[in-house]
Amino acid sequence: MMKKTRLLFFGLAILSLSLTAQNSKQWSIQGSFEEQESLPTSLSLAAFSFPSESFEAIDNIKVNTNGQFQWSAPFQTANLYQLKIGGQAIRLAVDTAETIQLTIIRDGDQWKPSIKGSKGTKMLYEFPKKLREREAFYFGDLKKEMETAMKEKDQATLAKIQEQVGQLFPKFVADLQSMLNDLGSSTAVYGALDYIDPNKGQAMIEQTILRMQAEKPHIPVTKSLVERLAKMKGIPIGAAAPSFTGTSLDGTAVSLADYKGKYLYIDFWASWCLACRAENPKLVKLYNRYQSAQFDMLGIGIKDKEASWKAAIAKDELPWTQLNDQDNGIGSDYFVMSLPQNVLLDPEGKILYRNMGTEELAEVLKGLFK
């Protein structure tokens, strides 16, 4: 019995030493401002928190007169952090005990970081760049052709371009899936998924989140992503559409409840979205044909500058009510991550269809209203 007790004590001692060693591992930030003028006196460091899904301040880092700063703490768990310089935030993806080296350069009225020593942070910043490169590779030339066709109101060419986009899209999605796989279970995944439209890439989003859940289930980022996945699945076809209230073009308060008893087509769009603008003439024709006590349309401008939004409504001669969702409050409830998107609701406010093309919408309306 004594021998077993000694072995148990010895094992606990080893475990205690192991945990002490693990907790003694540090992650740190070492940085400097390249220019010495108008230096901030301190930087705010914030950590990603769940369930608030926000960044909460954890410390202030002093900047010396030479523009240098440093900070360190025991590495507890992988997480996202924000280093705030005034109103500007530099995001850090910390996956392990590491030293992050920052050189901060002034570019006009902005601070731009050069970051070394953090693989997760490097992936966090590289992902959107790689995504833009892939988009340009597959759709760059088509975008230029679409701009020309829109100016000339060439519907035949626009239809042809949309067909070409449809043929290229599966290849683009395959590249995107590979890019997500390359992130592994880094906290950089959280930022990368902000660029993926859940209505068009739900399978790859779910696969990525399940990988995070299997490999890093207890970190705040994973818990937030699992919650996001649950919400995404929580408004399937047949579910009640999230309620909202917004301000229309003329300043009137408009809510989803105002349309109860009607079939309602909600169009999420923006003045800068060429694909949205290309669909507008077709939507106007459908609206003029079917608008009634039983059917209506509602436009919601997503993250659009008010002047550009109003100009686009006037130029495209959109006759239905428009709301400007500048802070993306409505869009986020409907998981609008890219444009164009839409939903068709039944008279009870339940989702009948999601992301219909105008041709499909025309067929559905024809069936509903003979």
Explain this structure to me?
It is built from ten helices and 15 strands. Strand 14 and strand 15 form a beta hairpin. The protein folds into three domains: 94 residues, Transthyretin/hydroxyisourate hydrolase domain (Immunoglobulin-like); 113 residues, no CATH class; 125 residues, Glutaredoxin, CATH 3.40.30.10. The relative contact order is 0.09. It has a five-stranded mixed β-sheet with strand order 13-12-11-14-15. It is of the alpha+beta class.
Search tags:
3 domains; 370 residues; alpha+beta; disordered N terminus; 4-stranded mixed beta sheet; 5-stranded mixed beta sheet; Glutaredoxin; Immunoglobulin-like; single chain
Short description:
The chain is α+β, with helices and mostly antiparallel strands and 370 residues long.
Largest sheet: 5 strands, mixed
Second rung of CATH, namely the architecture of the largest domain? 3-Layer(aba) Sandwich
Query: How many β-strand stretches?
Result: 15
| Rough outline | elongated
Helix content: 40-55%
What is the string of helix and strand elements? HEEEEEEEEHHHHHEEEHEHEHEEH
Number of domains: 3
Helix count from the secondary structure assignment: 10
